[in-house]
Structure formats: structure tokens, C-alpha cells
Amino acid sequence: MNVFMEGLFLILLVKSCHGQCRHWSTPEFHFASNRKLQGHVFQMKAVSTTVICGRDCSMDPQCASFNYDAGSHLCELNNQTRLQSPCTFVEKQDSFYFDESKKTTAACAREFSIVGKPAEQSSMHNNGAAAAVDGSSSSAITHCSYTLEDPAPWWRVDLGEDHCISKVRILNRGDCCSYRLEDAVVRAGDNTTVTDNPTCGSPVTAAQAQPLGCTIEFDCSPELRARYVSVDIPGKGILQLCEVTVEEIPLDHCSGEQNCQ
Question: Where does the record locate the signal sequence feature (predicted)?
Fold first, then answer.
């Protein structure tokens, strides 16, 4: 029987890094035993210890977390964390998952309600754009925005004024066809043309889109000053969003203008 434990794990990287670890500002990691993040590995290698795996991750700016298999000594570097992709965080005997215990702008972050904000989309099948900001936690299609099969479908919400966006979350459809969200891109900015705004996080992967009714998180790093938050698929497809939520930090802390305490 798998045992799931979670806590803080301290890895001493100073000697093994030789002063070269620049990506993670602290050697303190969240860890979980008998768990791994699947579908987000960009590099794998055999190493003898978790310390070496953690060092390699800390030296790679693409690395957000890592898995270590105690049996095979396989080190897997991930470009996402379990918070960004909770539905691909799975049980795996003798595997250990690690990500950084971040102390950044989290102290400033707060959820900003966009329920009822004006929303538009490229076309409408059954439900309009407002269904994605109606406050419902249902992932049934009757509660989701839904476009036709467009050449490049998009959805956009108007926040009314600038906010400093730190995270965006999308609740994917739960009764069918969640795979349609693959390759979707989240953007935030002041342009009404969605593709003119900078991206928040990475495009949705096949692994993220596969589970039904999953919430996918997009981490805007750095945070984005924006009036508009949008989702688009850069190619032919159907865009369906069951709920979109955002987190913000104060505007005077946006993109390092001030430090969060």
C-alpha cells in the first residue's frame, strides 16, 4: 500500500553546486513520497542521490520540480509543479517528488473575483463567454463557455481596469472532450487583440488536458499588468471553459516594483 507523506525537505546544495545554483534562491523543498508528477518531464538521467538531482534542477532555469525514483535512481526534471498540474500528480511506489518551497509574491497574492465581468469569445455554440465567469464550480458542458470549431478560437474577459495578474486557473470540461483544451494559451495585457498580449505560463499539454474536470493552473512569471485576461488555441479547434479564476497582487508590487513582505 502506498503511503503518502508530505512536508518540508532540506537539501544541502552549497557544496555540490560550487556557487553555480542560481535558479532556486533557497535549498528548502516541499516533498511527497510515493508520488510523482507525470507528463511534464523535459530531461531524465540516472544519478545516485536526490541531492544531485536537486542540484541539477536548481541549475536549470527550466526546472520547476523533480521526481526521483529510489529503485532505479532515475532523476526526472519537470517544467511544471504539482500545483500547476494537480491532475497529473499520481501515486508511484518508491518515487519521490520535490518542488521549491517558494517565498516570493505569495504573501501578496489574493483571489480577485471576475464573476460577472464582461466576457466575449470568437463564436458561440451552445453557451456564451459569460458561462466561464458565472461562479459555478460545475464542469458539465451546460455550465461552460463553448465556441464553434473556429480557425483560432479565443475567449476574453474585461477586468474594467488594470490589475497585476499572478495566476490564472481554468476548470476544464468534466463530462466529455477535455482533450480539446490541449495547446490552449493564457494571456494577459491591455490589448483587445488577444494574441498581442504576453502569455501567462505555458500552453496546456496533452497530459494536463486529458483528465476530465481538472483545474489547470497558469503561473504568470513575472506577474502581468493587465486589463484583459484571455485564452486562445493557436489553430483550428473548439474552446470550452467551465470556469476561469485569477489571482492578483497589488499593482505597486507588479513585476518587482516593490517587494512583498
Answer: 1-19
